[in-house]
Design goal:
- The chain is of the alpha/beta class.
- 37% of the residues lie in helices and 23% in strands.
- The protein contains 21 helices and 26 strands.
- The protein has an 8-stranded antiparallel sheet, covered by helices on one side. It has a 6-stranded antiparallel sheet with strand order 5-6-7-8-12-13. Strands 18-17-19-20-21 form a 5-stranded parallel sheet, with helices on both faces.
- Helix 8 packs parallel to helix 15.
- The structure holds 2-deoxy-2-amino glucitol-6-phosphate.
- 2-deoxy-2-amino glucitol-6-phosphate (AGP) binds next to helix 11.
Length: 611
């Protein structure tokens, strides 16, 4: 996730786009840049850091440019740096490109372009687009852009300007939002509506495959082959604050709804057929191959993702895995051996306890892989290797899309361990990986189906909001998800909640079950379903109410429940990705019902940088 703004018209373009870019800083903030065309040709000013720093650099620049494109970055390919900041230019400094998304085939294109004599200046996937357009530019810019996008796989929202066809901005979209703002004698382009609202409310929202040529007084949209297309004008009625939230009342709900795209982005390019692509995962296979034991260390929601990771790695690679809370690990003098590998998981990459655990492990000679959502964060800088979750910036304190993408990365890592390990003599782990690769690709669509049950879940949440306690039960991976569900509910609705391994209830906790206690039961793991049904019966015998989340091929669980929701079935190892979504929605709607400050719950901070 990054932000794009462009302007063409009769006003001073540079200050206008920079001001509008500020409205998108929530989408990315590790570097920023602008390209504009004036009498002296193409100028690019860009820097690592926030937009404020770019503004300072621009204060000394005098330009009457009437066309500009700008970008605020949230790094995916290439660390945050001046060179990796957008815009990116071609060899002759005649084409400037800003880009949101991920070009999956960037490595092959880079090789091809370098062989043709192009010189690259950054580590980004985006720079290939500037050189491709240079290669094809021979007259109209839109023709070159259309030819270039036909060569790209992956996701992109692109805005391009060129000295060789200077009175236009050409934009193109696939799987990454792009909108045109319509004015009189001026037009704008942006990745997100909030950037436009100070200037216009009349917009054209581009669709996948669209390429648009935007001049000061004209917008022409075609497909990639140049066939003209009609698109409706959409009038935006949102106020600027809700526009930042994409029209949702809270960032948390927006981020819950972004999960299908976040899953797709985190998977993008990392699976090659049925195998993990180590180049894209950026973890050396030799390191995994020599690992004899894995230790996962994290806090809060990231710890819960680690618990899922333990199941996955043990199942797929038959490697022993221990999961630790970072605040415990750092002080308990863990036994570390040769052959150990530590995986730290941290959305922010700045959690003090997780950083301390990472340093402790490395100081004792154990290699560390970080799983983080923020490029250039402390854990990403200090770990030996980092695998990024590509969830985009998470604003709400309650972590949702970061957790789901952590599950995706843990699945990919588990598959990578299975690929590199000889500890699976039957080859069953390998076969499982093949099935998982297929099922992973289907997850974004299935996650969308789960989100379509929102209104049913919201009704359940209203009922739960009346109680002061709740239990979440499950077995195996369902227990791991129950842990995350109870944390979400506590964190934002302030309802006391506990997660229990369902088989453990009868060892004490059953004493607390009365008809005033809702019990949320997760029943997505077929191999323990019968056991779960027995545990559900135990609860019901004590008058407890059962709210069950089960698979859509399970007809029996609904018969034992007071309320149920059937989820699209996936491979049992992937069900956590789907079953956590309604639990996030339960927490969200219960918090709304209780009038809580959903995005900023009391006493909590997004990033816990102190002990
Ligand atoms: C989750 O909703 C929480 N806000 C919290 O548990 C969080 O996951 C934890 O503090 C770890 O943060 P990190 O992933 O940024 O390290």
């Amino acid at each position: 996730m990054c932000g794009i703004v462009g302007y063409i018209g009769d006003k001073a373009a540079a200050p206008l786009v920079i001001d509008s870019l500020g409205k998108l800083e929530y989408r990315g903030y590790d570097s920023a840049g602008i390209a504009f065309l004036d009498g002296d040709g193409l100028k690019v000013v860009k820097t690592e850091g926030r937009i404020a720093k770019l503004c300072q650099m621009l204060s000394g620049v005098c330009t009457d440019a009437k066309v500009a494109v700008s970008h605020t970055r949230w790094a995916t390919h290439g660390k945050p740096s001046d060179a990796n900041a957008h815009p990116h230019t071609d060899c002759r400094n005649e084409v400037a490109v800003v880009h949101n998304g991920i070009i999956e085939n960037h490595a092959a294109l880079r090789r091809e372009l370098m062989a043709a004599g192009h010189v690259f200046r950054s580590e980004t996937d985006t720079e290939v687009v500037a050189h491709l357009i240079e290669q094809y530019l021979d007259g109209r810019l839109e023709i070159a852009v259309r030819r270039a996008v036909c060569r790209l796989s992956g996701s992109f929202a692109l805005a391009v300007i060129s000295t060789r066809d200077p009175h236009k901005i050409v934009v193109a979209r696939k799987d990454s939002p792009l909108v045109i703002g319509l004015g009189r004698g001026e037009n704008m382009v942006a990745s997100d509506i909030p950037a436009l609202l100070d200037h216009t409310r009349e917009t054209v929202i581009l669709r996948d495959g669209d390429v648009a040529t935007v001049t000061a007084d004209r917008v022409e949209i075609t497909d990639r082959n140049g066939t003209p297309l009609e698109r409706n004008v959409f009038r935006v009625e949102w106020d600027p604050v809700s526009a930042q939230k994409g029209g949702y009342p809270h960032f948390m709900l927006k981020e819950i709804h972004e999960q299908p795209d976040a899953i797709a982005n985190t998977l993008r390019g990392r699976l090659s057929g049925t195998r993990v692509d180590f180049n894209e995962l950026r973890v050396p296979p030799e390191l995994l191959a020599k690992t004899k034991r894995v230790r996962i260390v994290a806090c809060g929601t990231a710890y819960h993702a680690g618990v899922v990771g333990k199941y996955l790695i043990e199942k797929l690679a038959r490697l022993p895995v221990e999961v630790d809370l970072a605040s415990e690990y750092r002080y308990r003098d863990p036994v570390l051996d040769a052959g150990d590998l530590v995986i730290v998981i941290s959305q922010s990459g700045e959690t003090a306890d997780t950083i301390a655990a990472l340093r402790e492990s490395r100081a004792r000679g154990v290699p560390v892989i970080a799983v983080s959502n923020v490029m250039g964060s402390t854990v990403a800088r200090e770990a030996d290797h980092t695998v990024y979750t590509l969830a985009g910036p998470e604003v709400a304190v309650a972590s949702t899309k970061a957790y789901v993408t952590q599950l995706i990365v843990m699945t990919l890592l588990a598959m990578a361990f299975a690929q590199t390990h000889a500890g699976d003599p039957t080859g069953s782990g390998q076969k499982l990986c093949e099935t998982l690769a297929q099922e992973l690709r289907a997850l974004p669509e299935k996650a969308r189906k789960v989100l379509a049950t929102e209104s049913q879940v919201a009704e359940l949440a209203k009922a739960i909001a009346r109680w002061e306690d709740a239990f979440f039960i499950g077995r195996g991976l369902d227990y791991a998800v129950a842990m995350e569900g109870q944390l979400k509910l506590k964190e934002i609705s302030y309802i006391h909640a506990e997660a229990y391994a369902a088989g453990e209830l009868k060892h004490g906790t059953l004493a607390l079950i009365t008809r005033d206690v809702p019990v949320i039961a997760l029943v997505t793991q077929p191999h323990v379903r019968e056991k779960m049904l027995s545990n559900i019966t135990e609860v019901k015998a004590r008058g407890g109410k059962i709210y069950a989340f089960c698979r859509d091929d399970d007809e029996e669980t609904p018969q034992h429940s007071d309320w149920h929701l059937q989820l699209p079935s996936s491979h049992p190892l992937l069900m956590p990705v789907l079953s956590v979504i309604p639990l996030q929605l339960v927490a969200y709607y219960a918090a709304v019902e209780r009038g809580c400050d959903v995005d900023k719950p009391r006493n909590l901070a997004k990033s816990v940088t102190v002990e």
